[in-house]
Amino acid sequence: MNGINGSYEVKNGEHLSHRKRSLAVTEFIQGLLTKNDDETHVVFCQLDTLTKKNEEVIWRESARWVKYEEDVEENGKRWSKPHVASVTLHNVLELRTQMFVGALVLDADVTNIPQLADLIIEELSKNKTLTENTKSTIRSSLLARHVHPHLKRRRISADDSGGNIITQCRMPKTSSAADFAKMKARQHAEGKGETNGHIPESSPLVKLNKPFMKKIPEGAQVANVWVGEIDDLKEPITAFIRLDKPRVIGDLTEVPLPTRFIFLHLSPVGEPGHIFAIGRAMSNMMVDVIFSEVAYKAKSREDIMHGFDEFLDQTTVLPPGQWDPEIRLEPPTKVPSQEGRRRFESIAEEEHSDPTLVRTGRLFGGLIEDVKRKIPFYISDFKDGFHIQCLGAVLFMYLATLTPNITFGALLGQSTHHYMGTMECIVAVAFVNLIFALFGGQPLIIMGSTGPVLVLEIIIYTMCRDSDWDFLPFRCLVGLWSALFLLIIVAFDLSALVRYITRFTEESFACLIAIIFIVESFKKIFSIADTHPFNIHPEIPLDYTCFCVPNNQSSVYNMTTMPLTTNAFNSTTDAITNWTSVQREDCVNLGGVLEGSGCGTTVYHDNVFFLSFIIGVGTFGVAWALVNMKKSTFFPTVVRQTIGDFAVFISICTMVLLDALLGVPTPKLMVPNTIQPSRPDRGWFISPYSPHNPWWVWIATALPALVAVILIFMDQQITAVIINRKENKLKKGCGYHLDLTVTTFCLVVCSFFGLPWYVAATVRSMAHVNSLKMESECTAPGEKPVFLGCREQRLTPLIIAILNGCSVFMTSILQLVPMPVLYGVFLYMGVSALRGMQFMDRMMIMLMPAKYQPDHMYLRHVRIKRVHLFTFFQILCLGILWAIKAIKTISIVFPVMVLGTCFVRKGMERIFSKNELKWLDELMPEDKMMKQEDEGELIVDDDDMDDDEDDDGPIEFLQLKKYRKIGSVDNMPWNLKQDSKTKYRKGPDDESIV
């Protein structure tokens, strides 16, 4: 290998072409990274420049890298905004040449700076002829003091800072061996105090930048890059040292991290800024994920040179006339994965379904596997709940589950003649969520009431009322039959059919429920105008002249001009002495008569409705703004994170306080204050036997039970699929069979105790997951927080269940909460559930001109007309589902129609190609495809593609055998793009600036 011109030679001496050389480099790097087991770490890079201050030569920190570049600005007093570093190709090539001829020491055993200086000089002397004066100058420069911007004890004034470090980065020409000689005595004394590589306790430099440590990943090690200019040098010298062990050496670094790499580049006085550019080039390479691994695992100079060449292969060069290098590029929101540079492994199509959804062939085999999968995490499921974020989730979700439950209870009581009402709903939501939190396969699911369940309850009650049967015993039999059918589903692993539910069905279902939440929120707010109307014609005077008089004195009663505005009256009719104080609505009940010209005039409550509207919309607006504050630039990260976690609770408290201060009688939350059945003539335990029901009812109830099974299975499992999607990055696994088993148990108990049947509530479950999403706390300066997943635990649903059960004891507090506040919470839950849906993105794209459309991956691979056609079919299905759910007489078939969307999606395979469905939705499972995937067979969609290595013709898809190595991007078709389904590197049109 010739390291200077970069060509590679084979055994016969022939030079390889550029494409084959690139292929060889890539394969070499892949082999080095996969075969070498040496431990690697994240690298924090610090660039120090040799400068002169008050006749003293020092190393001044000029820039640093955690991931993006930060430069010292304003005479060394502040750090610049983090930005994407851009380096010139010439500087990288020059650096490569210097590394090829410079000193290289791998696994050096040094413990202090003097030993390091001696080692560097010794290695440099092997390849270069250095005079004793030059050696002395180099050694003195290496022993110079290191100054960092954060230090407070030794403040650097603007006068002696030497100007801007970045632009004035070379040493003054007066710097020579004589300047360094003045420092020898002090450096010698400091050298004695440096034992074991640590700074002496008496050193004023012992104060390190510990607050900055929170921005650096745990376990990071330091690469110190030193550059400078010295008059005595005749030619540049370069040294690269890798320590055998990470060590804290002297005052090299601003943070308390051990040093692992040291790069030194000294040159004669030359062009201003050139030496700093060389240091920036090396620093950028050291924080590159692949080159840093190469630096850790390299065994020879050849390995390092291969790392340089791989870095150059992946680098994009911008034309000089189309971009200003002085512009600091903002860090991107998303950075493409670099995994493709390590290895090129891919599969044809990723299965969208969970790998656990496979029939075991054994009775209850799936349930047993779910239990085995969840047991190892059971203790951590409770420990992980002890976090401040979980407290915010509990406070939010408690009110988010209590209010719809009370509303459902009121509707259920009216529909079943109070055989089941609000109290039964409170007990049911507490019990079911408690059991599911303790034993469910996916405890993040919130169990609750749904519209189809209410319709089924009404149908069963109407049937029993018309047939003169006992409702609760009949309902108990339906529940027992349903439990039996669900148990059969669990026994034969039929939950594996869930894998046929693709994104098309999931998002159609979730979008419908979210839109229902939004629409119902506004309907509830505007319904306040029915009980508290507002006057749309305030300019017209109103006549409120109306009085209450005794019935037997209505014609002769001496009426006053006092209108009915108060409610002060005695408890009995005989004791009433002032009839004018009786309210209009109480007059007739007390035996009085209303007389007056304004008795028919509507009493308006303008303030009540308008304040209710403001509070409802304000609750949503404040919560939405506070949640989005996480992405803002205001306040420290910890403050933004905490405010975001408690956003909904802060919003609720703000609007409750506003309502209390204004004193307007807005409608309040009403909760029962005693634990007793809603109907006095029923008990808590329900027997399935009733003398009023015929014997054949025990068999006939199996028919409505089949409808209930479809309803429960679809609601439960579709919600579970949505929660378990890979986008949520759940790590503890799911348990579809276990979830259905726990739901079956709860169904049996609720049937025997006359409680409503509860299943997974989609929007509430999604809101619960969203409230527990985690982002990286340790982010490099300029790096956007990375979504890590959700806080998977059982504590929040457990506490939510307990609080719901204790609501009857907190009526004095809950009655202070206005109902419009809770309607605002529902609006927030509905809108937040729509965020991130591909379906919503595609609907927005239908309204956008092509030049404004976002750069989604499916838009790169599917024609826009086909995208719109797919979206049209999904909108059509959504409309049909909406119509069925809105028409109460047929809403019972809603779960069946949701199941029908799976068949619609299957039929779309005749309209759309497999490749289009792969990008727009997900491919349904196919046994043949799964077999090919297991065998690692090669699948190529383009039948005309030949084996010519120089053929760069387009191909749509390529699946590679496992562990097959492929060359660099030069040897790959340009239309292979980086995405979540493949590991290929992007083509040149999609590459980011390096």
From TrEMBL:
<dbReference type="InterPro" id="IPR011531">
    <property type="entry name" value="HCO3_transpt-like_TM_dom"/>
</dbReference>
<protein>
    <recommendedName>
        <fullName>Anion exchange protein</fullName>
    </recommendedName>
</protein>
<dbReference type="GO" id="GO:0016323">
    <property type="term" value="C:basolateral plasma membrane"/>
</dbReference>
<keyword id="KW-0812">Transmembrane</keyword>
<feature type="domain" description="Band 3 cytoplasmic">
    <location>
        <begin position="41"/>
        <end position="325"/>
    </location>
</feature>
<feature type="transmembrane region" description="Helical">
    <location>
        <begin position="391"/>
        <end position="412"/>
    </location>
</feature>
<keyword id="KW-1003">Cell membrane</keyword>
<keyword id="KW-0472">Membrane</keyword>
<feature type="domain" description="Bicarbonate transporter-like transmembrane">
    <location>
        <begin position="362"/>
        <end position="925"/>
    </location>
</feature>
<dbReference type="InterPro" id="IPR016152">
    <property type="entry name" value="PTrfase/Anion_transptr"/>
</dbReference>
<dbReference type="InterPro" id="IPR003020">
    <property type="entry name" value="HCO3_transpt_euk"/>
</dbReference>
<dbReference type="GO" id="GO:0005452">
    <property type="term" value="F:solute:inorganic anion antiporter activity"/>
</dbReference>
<feature type="transmembrane region" description="Helical">
    <location>
        <begin position="608"/>
        <end position="626"/>
    </location>
</feature>
<dbReference type="InterPro" id="IPR013769">
    <property type="entry name" value="Band3_cytoplasmic_dom"/>
</dbReference>
<dbReference type="GO" id="GO:0008509">
    <property type="term" value="F:monoatomic anion transmembrane transporter activity"/>
</dbReference>
<keyword id="KW-1133">Transmembrane helix</keyword>
<dbReference type="Pfam" id="PF07565">
    <property type="entry name" value="Band_3_cyto"/>
</dbReference>
<dbReference type="InterPro" id="IPR003024">
    <property type="entry name" value="Na/HCO3_transpt"/>
</dbReference>
<comment type="similarity">
    <text>Belongs to the anion exchanger (TC 2.A.31) family.</text>
</comment>
<dbReference type="GO" id="GO:0008510">
    <property type="term" value="F:sodium:bicarbonate symporter activity"/>
</dbReference>
<dbReference type="GO" id="GO:0051453">
    <property type="term" value="P:regulation of intracellular pH"/>
</dbReference>
<feature type="transmembrane region" description="Helical">
    <location>
        <begin position="476"/>
        <end position="498"/>
    </location>
</feature>
<feature type="transmembrane region" description="Helical">
    <location>
        <begin position="419"/>
        <end position="439"/>
    </location>
</feature>
<feature type="transmembrane region" description="Helical">
    <location>
        <begin position="735"/>
        <end position="759"/>
    </location>
</feature>
<dbReference type="Pfam" id="PF00955">
    <property type="entry name" value="HCO3_cotransp"/>
</dbReference>
<feature type="transmembrane region" description="Helical">
    <location>
        <begin position="695"/>
        <end position="714"/>
    </location>
</feature>
<feature type="transmembrane region" description="Helical">
    <location>
        <begin position="813"/>
        <end position="834"/>
    </location>
</feature>
<keyword id="KW-0813">Transport</keyword>
<feature type="transmembrane region" description="Helical">
    <location>
        <begin position="646"/>
        <end position="664"/>
    </location>
</feature>
<keyword id="KW-0406">Ion transport</keyword>
<feature type="transmembrane region" description="Helical">
    <location>
        <begin position="867"/>
        <end position="884"/>
    </location>
</feature>
